[in-house]
Write a structure and sequence with these properties.
Protein name: Cell wall hydrolase
Pfam family, one: Hydrolase_2
Helix content: 40-55%
Strand content: 5-15%
CATH topology: Arc Repressor Mutant, subunit A
Structural class: alpha+beta
Shape: globular
Strand order of the largest sheet: 3-6-5-4
Number of strands: 6
Keywords: Hydrolase
GO molecular function, one term: hydrolase activity
InterPro entries: Cell_wall_hydrolase_SleB, SleB_dom1
Radius of gyration: 14 Å
Number of domains: 1
CATH class: Mainly Alpha
Order of helices and strands: HHHEEHHEEEEH
Distance between the termini: 11 Å
Length: 146
């Protein structure tokens, strides 16, 4: 049973986002970004209540900006998804989860050492240039089940 319901178009959209956000961090970096996308979809808590599709996660607007910078600024995001990235996105949607993105709902590249918290959320780890953050204990238990 997949972690989330999805269509073929969702796989391509997610693959484009994974590539745009983490192509320089290789397949594993893209898989971690994919974890965050799927986690936001299944979490239904905090800033991610009511998200019901990959499309709604990718194009979510918070504070007047898209949640994922690549939607607004990324030329790579608007390129066609490649087979290799579609395969990775499908892995995330079907089953793949791994630390530090396993339960993460946020990530960013600080261009400096990762802070221990980000907007009050604890760091779960780092992979190359991206820092990953999980929800504080008791604030979003559904992310640990989904």
């Amino acid at each position: 049973m997949p972690r989330a319901n999805y269509r073929t178009s969702d796989v391509s959209l997610m693959a484009r986002m994974m590539r745009a956000e983490a192509e320089g961090e290789g397949k594993l970096g893209m898989l971690y970004v994919g974890n965050v996308i799927v986690n936001r979809l299944v979490a239904n808590c905090l800033d991610f209540k009511g998200l019901r599709s990959i499309n709604s996660v990718i194009f979510q607007v918070q504070g007047g900006n898209f949640s994922f910078e690549a939607v607004q600024k990324g030329n790579v995001f608007y390129q066609r998804a490649r087979t290799s990235e579609r395969r990775l996105a499908k892995q995330n949607l079907d089953y793949w989860r791994q630390h530090p993105g396993k339960y993460a709902l946020w990530y960013f590249n600080p261009h400096a050492p990762c802070p221990p918290t980000w907007y009050g959320q604890p760091q779960s780890g780092q992979f190359k240039n991206h820092c990953y953050y999980e929800p504080k204990a008791g604030t979003c238990d559904s992310v640990y089940r989904g």
